[in-house]
Amino acid sequence: MRDLSEIFEPVCSRDEIEAIEQLLDAPLMERAGLAAAQFVRDTLAAGKVLVLAGPGNNGGDALVAARHLRSWWIDVTLVFTGNPQKLPVDAARAYREWLDCGGICHQAIPRQDKWDLVIDGLFGTGLKRPLADGYKTMVDTVNALGIPILSIDMPSGVDSDTGTVPGAAVKAAHTLTFIALKPGLLTSDGLDHCGSVHLDTLGLDTPALRKPQGWVSNSKIVAASFRRRPRNSHKGTFGSTAIIGGSKGMLGAALLAARAALKLGSGKVFLRALDDFEVDPVQPEIMMRDAAEAMEASTFVIGPGLGKSEAARRLVERALLSKSALVIDADALNLIAQDAKLQQALIGRAGIAVLTPHPAEAARLMGCSIPEIQKDRIAAATGLVRKFGCPVVLKGAGSICAFLDGKWVINASGNPGLAQAGMGDVLSGMMGAFLSQGLSLEDALLCAVYLHGAAAENLSLAGVGPMGMTASELIDASRALLNKIVENGLK
């Protein structure tokens, strides 16, 4: 697998952040608080600011920020919710310095006052439980003020490792996070609470201090994975992709996957549909084949619209016993989940494979509930890798790409337009196309997931979505973006 540090930003868990902080002699609170104050002054330009300072080090960051803002003649109202006698050492110092400069601490949000901005410094990365009733009331109050909120490090109430919100949470317009990005800002409910995310490393070289396991994707993976095609080439140069699925009533899923594979660059695309079908009138370039002929492709995608019949099961078993690169999606996942023999065939197969479940399919594969998958999406994705011995993309808000070496990547592209039928079929077809063109399994997975989301963003910018965006529209948008990134990357 390529060195992800060359192209991606690291993402750190709370334990990794704590380990980094323990390596440093100099306290970081003053740097963090100053960075927050400068962000307010230079970017948000607020005249009256309400600061909420909690009982721990996140509250200390807020106290430092308040002190600097006050020194710049910005009108600051500070609400302190902690016990001065129980503050950590650095936060206690920040509290004393706030009082020494003439600052006042309120115990509750003053009524009948108005501000331009709220700084949320109640809880940071350390919070692992629902907010207590008093804090929940305070969070509900500031959320209802109708003014922008800047959260320091994490929106209070959001779990920094999982992005889950077990109770109430601040809905920030901006989050200024420190040292490294946190998983909870990039997946699950965190995406709806963090607003625009801004990173300040506080001058630290995070990967040098502790090599992270997690990363966040960007377009560099596409530019790094593709090269300009040689003029002396032919259709065989770019491989063949077979789509296996399309039972009666679900043929559209297989057609979407096949069309995606064709338009994302596979030299030849075959379709083995369980439903009788002779030609795709929209894309007649797709060749209809029986199972034996389809299985001769260099890569195949099994599952879109496959159904769960005995004939479908036999096709899955045959695919698992082959040595071709294999993308396993949709009903193929469901068949594997309910069949111990198929699971063993997957675990012991000679060829490479990738699983592409959504949360419900992941739950079936792991023998648990959907809420158990969603409460820690990174743990769920890495657990699937350990169980089946192949890379996984756990689809959803902030899709998780997990690999055999324990590394994982959160995909940051995409929007709610992807919450439509057929989008997963397009993704699996794209992945098959990239594998057939010779990309490594890891690169094919990362490129497909990134492009799939980024194409949805481009469609929305063009007025096509997010509401009503279709999977068919996404195929052409993905093709256009792939060519644009590759050409620009080569200039």
- How many domains, as an integer? 2
CATH class of the largest domain, anyone?
A: Alpha Beta
**Helix percentage:** 40-55%
Parts with pLDDT < 50 across at least 5 consecutive residues: none
Annotated CATH architecture of the largest domain? 3-Layer(aba) Sandwich
CATH superfamily of the largest domain: Ribokinase
Give the tally of β-strands. 18
Give a short account of the largest sheet.
7 strands, parallel
Q: Please list the strands of the largest sheet in the order they lie side by side.
A: 4-3-2-5-6-7-8
Give me the CATH fold name of the largest domain.
Answer: UDP-N-acetylmuramoyl-L-alanine:D-glutamate ligase
Fold and architecture overview:
There is one protein chain. The chain folds into 2 domains: about 5-215, 3-Layer(aba) Sandwich (Rossmann fold); about 220-490, Ribokinase (UDP-N-acetylmuramoyl-L-alanine:D-glutamate ligase), CATH 3.40.1190.20. Helix content is about 40%, strand content about 15%. The chain is built from 18 helices and 18 strands. The strands form 3 sheets. It has a 7-stranded parallel beta sheet, with helices on one face. The protein has a 6-stranded parallel beta sheet with strand order 12-11-10-13-14-15, with helices on both faces. A hairpin with a 5-residue loop joins strand 17 and strand 18 (about 410). The two termini are about 25 Å apart. The model has no long low-confidence stretch (mean pLDDT about 95).
Topology:
Elements: E1 9-11, H1 14-22, H2 29-44, E2 48-53, H3 57-71, E3 75-80, H4 89-100, E4 105-106, E5 117-121, H5 133-143, E6 149-152, E7 174-178, E8 196-200, H6 206-209, E9 214-216, H7 220-225, E10 240-245, H8 251-263, E11 268-273, E12 287-288, H9 291-294, E13 299-302, H10 310-321, E14 325-328, H11 330-337, H12 340-347, E15 353-355, H13 359-366, H14 370-374, H15 377-388, E16 392-394, E17 400-402, E18 408-410, H16 423-436, H17 441-461, H18 471-490
Parallel strand pairs: 2-3, 2-5, 3-4, 5-6, 6-7, 7-8, 9-18, 10-11, 10-13, 11-12, 13-14, 14-15
Antiparallel strand pairs: 1-9, 16-17, 17-18
Helix pairs in contact: 2-3, 3-4, 8-16, 8-18, 11-13, 16-17, 17-18
